[in-house]
Amino acid sequence: MTVLVTGVAGFIGSHLAERLVGAGHKVVGVDCFTGYYPRAIKESNLAALREIDSFVFREEDLLCMELTGLLRNVDVVFHEAAQAGVRASWGSDFKVYIENNVRATQCLLEAAKDASLKKFLYASSSSIYGDAESYPTSEGMTPMPISPYGVTKLAAEHLCYLYHKNYGVPVLSLRYFTVYGPRQRPDMAFNKFIRAILRDEEIVIYGDGEQTRDFTYIDDIIDANISAMDAHLVGDVVNIGGGSRITVNEAIRVIENVAGKKARTKYVEKQKGDVRHTGADISRAEKMLGYRPAYNLEKGIANEFAWLRDMKF
Ligand SMILES: NC(=O)c1ccc[n+]([C@@H]2O[C@H](COP(=O)([O-])OP(=O)(O)OC[C@H]3O[C@@H](n4cnc5c(N)ncnc54)[C@H](O)[C@@H]3O)[C@@H](O)[C@H]2O)c1
């Protein structure tokens, strides 16, 4: 098949494209290297892909490029491009989130309605739940985001649904829960914690560290996407979580074990927009996608640790 991966130079998009070319698909990747984190990191994410003949890279902004032609002959769209990050989404930067998360998705869907796609997979987020009514959180819970980022991810999810309902675009939204592993974005907690421990610097924790997260290893996220390509499920949403929920303090103990040394920690004020807990009910993913997370935190953190130690960022 020919597939499109948007946001291909990013953390998740680059892993996804590698898996897809490895499985024999022709991959067209689009990324405009937004300034959210350094281009050098994204270039290193792309380095192996650039050597592969069945991978075509287009350095372009979804908001400016000609999308109808882009989707011609494409079978499946994996829409990973977005302005990520909860904490940076307040204030005047909100417009960047509106542009890259809402408007770019609408432009792509507009082109998708005239294309012959088998599937349009949208990378949604657990942030759409906000402080959820109950845990583990199932897809039926009312979405109540508490960050501007979450609002844009939810708006784009709704856009996916309405293009399905009105135009039959075969959308499926996968709600990822805190993804980690090699190439994790530099603004994300594990990346920051591991770099701090490698440099004998203080690990800064927002709040008391007793907030919980459903950490999901990157390979499990990719497995879910690959299964979703062929699944007979459209116009729907599916949680993709790691299968276990732990506190940030417990995660730091795991990092200490992997590093073989104690971390120095500093607790600072909780950040606005951060939810207290996340926890995915993954029974729909199990049933509809045959999804079963394969990585435990020890193994996944060891892989991210090894990557950061060798990258020396
Ligand atoms: N990482 C997580 O824990 C997590 C959790 C939930 C959802 N998600 C979602 O998964 C997707 C990928 O996240 P990530 O962590 O890999 O982020 P990332 O920032 O590493 O990758 C996103 C990429 O999209 C590109 N991009 C943004 N706007 C673009 C535009 N208008 N045109 C072309 N390219 C554009 C950026 O340059 C970047 O390389 C995002 O949609 C994000 O919201 C991620």
The domain count comes to 1
Our Rg estimate from Cα atoms comes to 19 Å
Number of helices: 10
CATH topology, by name, is Rossmann fold
Q: Please, what is the CATH homologous superfamily?
A: NAD(P)-binding Rossmann-like Domain
**Strand coverage percent:** 15-25%
- The level of helicity is 25-40%
Placed side by side, the strands forming the largest sheet appear as: 3-2-1-4-5-6-11
Question: What are the distinct ligands in this entry?
Answer: nicotinamide-adenine-dinucleotide
Q: Give the total of beta strands.
A: 13
The quaternary organization reads as: single chain
Largest sheet geometry: 7 strands, parallel
| Class of secondary structure makeup | alpha/beta
* SSE succession: EHEHEHEHEHEEHEEEHEEHEHH
Could you list the spans in which at least 5 consecutive residues all have pLDDT below 50? none
Average pLDDT across residues? 97
Alpha carbon gap, first and last residue: 36 Å
Give a short synopsis of this structure.
The protein has one domain (2-180, 216-242, 280-293): NAD(P)-binding Rossmann-like Domain (Rossmann fold), CATH 3.40.50. Helix content is 40%, strand content 18%. The protein has helices at residues 11-22, 39-50, 67-71, 94-112, 148-167, 189-198, 218-230, 248-259, 283-289, 297-311; strands at residues 2-6, 26-31, 55-59, 76-79, 119-125, 171-176, 179-180, 202-206, 212-213, 216-217, 236-240, 246-247, 264-268.
